[in-house]
Amino acid sequence: MSEVKTAIRADLKEAMKAKDTLVTGTLRMLLSAIQTEETSGTAHALTDDEFLKVVAREVKKRGEAAELFETNGRPELAHQERAEADVMSRYLPTQLGDDEVAALADEAVAQVRAELGAEPTVRNMGQVMKVATAKAAGAADGKRLSAAVKARLG
């Protein structure tokens, strides 16, 4: 079993003992999403990177739902979604700052430049993003990373 999954199960056990309904419910939802991912397609044990992708996806879902609730005049539901996202965010790596994302984008562009032997253009965005995403390893949101790469390419 993965270290991340083990940590989530241990935290769930502690939350249940403390009768913390928010954390208990959120961690159960997260474990359910992880189990769904493990059993979809060919059943397999997820790596730590795959766990982080599932957690990041769930956090993103909560953030989008909170925005929708805010725009539709339901602040109490938006607060609940944000609280769940905060609980799940504990299992994500520390997010990179803007300067670090910019440096990561510069490294990715330089690596693709070395591979191509020429200056990469917007047409090479996919190649650069593949390198940048691998280097970020879940520590940067795809939207922020994409914007930084796009700024360097054109």
Automatic annotation (TrEMBL):
InterPro entries: Asn/Gln_tRNA_amidoTrase-B-like, GatB_Yqey_C_2, YqeY/Aim41, YqeY/Aim41_N. PANTHER family: ALTERED INHERITANCE OF MITOCHONDRIA PROTEIN 41, MITOCHONDRIAL. This is GatB/YqeY domain-containing protein. The lineage of its organism: Bacteria, Bacillati, Actinomycetota, Actinomycetes, Mycobacteriales.
